[in-house]
Amino acid sequence: MDKLTAIRTFVAIVEHGSQTEAARRLGRSQPTVVRGLAELEKSLDVKLITRTTRQSVLTLEGEQYYHDCKRLLEGLDTSEERIKEIQKSARGQIKLTAPVEFGNLVLAPTLLALQSEFPELRLKIDLTDQPLDLVGGGYDAAVRIGELPDSGMIARKVGKMPSFVCAAPVLVERLGVPENPQCLANLPCVGIDISRRRFGLEWKFDELRGSPVVVRPDAGFVCDSVALARTACRAGLGYAAFYGYQVVEELRGGTLVKVMESGNPERAVNLLWPPRQPMPKRVRAVLQRIEIGIRDELARMQTFW
């Protein structure tokens, strides 16, 4: 028995006064309506309607059940209309930008799900580590990690991101675990210099007393690609600092190990968008799903940090 169909049948019988009229309004045969009501009563083990040759009358149980079902169906119909409205409005182009590795490793599942959920949505995604002008570039939203400049954008923190100094097990076996951050200045390291911002060439730590320490590692291998730096680190070329999401698979598989916490305190993961009043419904729907998707994916990854 389809319980929801049976409930709708029952409510139709009550509201239209007879099984015959309910069948006509529902576009079903009268035997189907009669059978649906009988199956519903059997499943509840109670008589809902007393039928005579002239009329159908609700029992006391039927009266209560009718009002409960009516509220249930009204809530369900409202929810369905709301979803349909979102579906209708979630069409047109949405332009997004995010860091390359974050987009590929964290954001991708949500973007694929969005396209499946809203087939009339046209997603334009720019994965880049270059700082972009969101308004000038026509972007609807962006993901940014770390401190944000005063740009007039609306920002919402959707997560936090630690960073670690990692190394290949073979390198740790040969050179050991650094006793303190200063030791890294005399050890082979892999540096990352994206957009010449030197974030991956100056590693920040907190001492026990809370005073920040900046270490400029002896980077014999420097590149502008996180993927290449990860490969070099796995090959044992040196110690390297990464955000947690960038090495979650390596940490899980054991090809890299954490040797030191860095980047303390953790950096915020922010969702940004230009102020727009009113905000298009398609943008609101996408922002909501991206926020949920990022939170869920980061929570899953944290089990391997």
CATH topology of the largest domain: D-Maltodextrin-Binding Protein, domain 2
Mean pLDDT: 87
At the first level of CATH, the class of the largest domain is Alpha Beta
Instruction: Report strand order across the widest sheet.
Output: 4-3-5-12-6-11
Number of helices: 9
What is the count of β-strands? 12
Summarize the model shown:
By secondary structure, this protein is α/β, with parallel strands linked by helices. It has helices spanning 3-16, 19-26, 30-44, 60-89, 100-117, 169-175, 226-234, 248-253, 281-302, and strands at residues 49-51, 56-58, 92-98, 121-127, 141-145, 154-167, 188-192, 203-206, 212-215, 218-223, 240-243, 257-273.
Question: How are the elements arranged and paired?
Answer:
Blueprint: H1 3-16, H2 19-26, H3 30-44, E1 49-51, E2 56-58, H4 60-89, E3 92-98, H5 100-117, E4 121-127, E5 141-145, E6 154-167, H6 169-175, E7 188-192, E8 203-206, E9 212-215, E10 218-223, H7 226-234, E11 240-243, H8 248-253, E12 257-273, H9 281-302
Parallel strand pairs: 3-4, 3-5, 7-10
Antiparallel strand pairs: 1-2, 5-12, 6-11, 6-12, 8-9
